[in-house]
Fold:
Amino acid sequence: MNIVIFGPPGAGKGTQADFLVSEFKLLKVSTGDLLRKEIEKESDLGLEIKDIIDKGQLASDNIINSLIEKLISNNEYANKLIFDGYPRNLSQAKNLDLLTKKYNQKISCVLNLSVDKETIIKRISGRQICTNCGLIFNRYFKPTSNINHTCDPKFLIIRSDDNQNTIINRYETYLKETLPILNFYRKQNLLHQINGMKKIDQIYEEIQGIITSLEA
Structure:
C-alpha cells in the first residue's frame, strides 16, 4: 500500500508515520531527506539542489517531482511508501497521481490529522528540549519532574522558532496550502479525517482500523 499522511505542524503525523513504517514495513518518504541524500551523492542534481538551498531558496516542484519519480519507479518500494510532507500543493498531488498510475501503483488512503490552532500552539510553544540528555518535554502536556528528568533545569531550552507568532503563521499557511489537496483526495474517496486531539495510541488505533478495512 501507499499512504499519504497530512497534519499541521505539531499534529503528530511524524509519530504516526513511524508507527506505520514499523508495523507495515513501509518506507517513509520525506522530501527533506530526499534532497539531503541527493546532495550527499554529489550528483549533478545534488549540486543544483545545494546551490538552490545555499541561496536560501526552495527546491522547485520539478526537482521534487523528479526525486519522487526515482523512488516510485524503484520496484523495491512498489506500494510500500508512506508520504510525510508530500505533496505540499495541488500540482504535486496531481503529479503523484500521474506517477502512481504510470508505474502501476496507487494511493491506498490519505490520512489527515485534524488538530485545532489552540492545541497546536500549546504543543509547539510548550515544547522544551534538554540539551544535556536530548529528552523532549512540554510545559502543558508533559512537564518535567524529578521522576522523568534528572538533568539540571538550566539545560531545558525552547527553540527560537517555537514562538506563538511563528506557529500561527505556519499553521495558517499549512491550512491554506493543504485545503485544495484534501479536496482533491476527498473527490477520489481516499481521504480519512482523523481526530488528532486524541492520545497517541488512540489515534494509531483509529488509523489501524482504517488500514485493516482496506486490506479486507
Q: What stands out?
A: The first strand starts at residue 3 and ends at 6. The two ends are 13 Å apart (CA to CA). The chain has a mean pLDDT of 91.
